[in-house]
Amino acid sequence: MQDVENLRDEILGLSRNIHENPELAFKEYKSAGFIKALLQKHGFTLEDKIGGLDTAFKGTFPGGKAGPTVALLAEYDALPEVGHGCGHNLISAVSLGAAIALSKNMKEIGGTLALIGTPAEERGGGKIILLEKGAFEGINYALMTHPSTTNMVNRGGLATTGVHLAFKGRAAHSASPENGINALQALIQTLNLLDAVRVQMPLKATTNAIITDGGTASNIIPEYARCEISVRAATIADLKKVLDMIKKIVSSVESLTGAEADYSTTLIYAERYSNLSIDRVFKKHLESLGETVQYPDPAAKVGSSDIGNVSLVMPAIHAYFKITDNRVNAHSKDFAAAAITDYAHEMTLKAAKALACTAYEIFTDGSLRGEIKKEFDEKVPRYKDVRNFQ
Predict the structure, then answer these.
(1) How do strand 110-117 and strand 65-74 relate by DSSP bridges?
(2) pLDDT category, 294, cuts 50, 70, 90?
(3) What are phi and psi of 204, to 5 degrees?
(4) Cα–Cα distance measured from residue 104 to residue 175, given in angstroms and rounded to the nearest whole number
(5) What percent of the chain has pLDDT over 70?
(6) What residue ranges define each of the domains in the chain, with the CATH number in brackets?
(7) Which string of b and e fits 305-336 if b means at least 16 CB within 10 Å?
(8) Which of 7, 184, 188, 216 is the most exposed place for a label (fewest CB within 10 A)?
(9) Average pLDDT in the chain
């Protein structure tokens, strides 16, 4: 833990640099550069632009003998308008601090330490692309933390995807609507039918939509209309059931109205299986620093993240550390402000210490690795293709 304290200025300097230079998905050139510079300074071997992504990278540090490969994950993309309203500057700072601190002890450890820079968590599914491109090959464990309003471990996440739906009709003057095909009406009927079948959706499944294009003039029958639909469900299996419902609705609306649909989905973020055996170790170490760490309320609502896809491939955790109170909402300017406070930075150092100690135990405790594997094998479903659900 003293190794993290020795890195205090570099860890917190990284947080400030990323926070002051918010960059959106796949454009995080400065943020990735800040992290890579520190990894190289401390002797990591750097592999740049992994998975074909300009702002993705992997830094590795070898141990003194053979053993597992443990990866610490760093996110650093910001949000439109609110900057680091999700605190990704702190995610990077924790993983960077833990990785460099661990590297000072790798000569006595068996295995390989990695820090993987994963862009575009918010809008783009960077980890999903990296999985598809094989950038996680050879990694045995993936660990990361996330700032929050409470210290928490073993929180799950929902599967999610976005639907892009457009209808093409035929324009006509509104005085003679029978001469046109109303694309906007086709879109509205689709959304109405989606609301009508909501009670038949799987438990925890939700949809939300916005119309992004509904025509150009009120006296013209719209020949084009477009919407975006956000779909969430407890699992990928349930998510696909909702997508099948949407496709059937779209097909029936096409038949009824004569409008032609253009339908596509974004990358699918999988549900999350946070490994409890690893989470318990992280909880133990964070509590040793004077913190109280909770388990999630089973009834609480959860969001989605591309770490879920990683958790289907290997044991992974996505632990939370407190940087502010629950009056502050994530993805807000207030949370962005909280992510640069002295309190947040002190918690960042604690989280880095706990993460480093957790990784150290994985490296050095064979019985722990056995428990982790047993849980992973028993709890995580085996999808046909966990790297590409399209």
Answers:
(1) parallel
(2) very high
(3) 75, -5
(4) 77
(5) 98
(6) 2-157+272-379 (3.40.630.10), 159-265 (3.30.70.360)
(7) bbbbbbbbbbbbbbbbbbbbeeebebeeeebb
(8) 216
(9) 96
Q: Name the token pair of 304.
A: 């989605």
In order of 11, 149, 283, 380, the CA distances from 269 in angstroms are 30, 23, 26, 15
Kindly report whether the global pTM for this prediction surpasses the value 0.85: yes
Separation of alpha carbons 202 and 241, rounded Å: 8
Q: Order of strands, edge to edge, in the sheet holding 224-233?
A: 206-213, 224-233, 159-168, 260-265
SS3 per residue for 302-370: CCCCCHHHHHHHCCEEEEEEECCCCCCCCCCHHHHHHCCCHHHHHHHHHHHHHHHHHHHHHHHCHHHHH
- Residues of 164-180 as b/e, b for ≥16 C-beta within 10 angstroms? ebbbbbebbeeeeeeeb
pLDDT surpassing 80 at residue 387: no
What does the pLDDT look like over 77-94, one tens digit per residue?
A: 999 999 999 999 999 999
What number of residues does the chain have? 390
> What is the sign, positive or negative, of the torsion defined by CA atoms of 308, 310, 311, 317?
negative
pLDDT tens by residue, 140-166: 999 999 999 999 999 999 999 999 999
In one letter, which amino acid is 74? A
Q: pLDDT at position 308, please?
A: 96
Phi, psi torsion values for 48, nearest 5 degrees: -95, 155
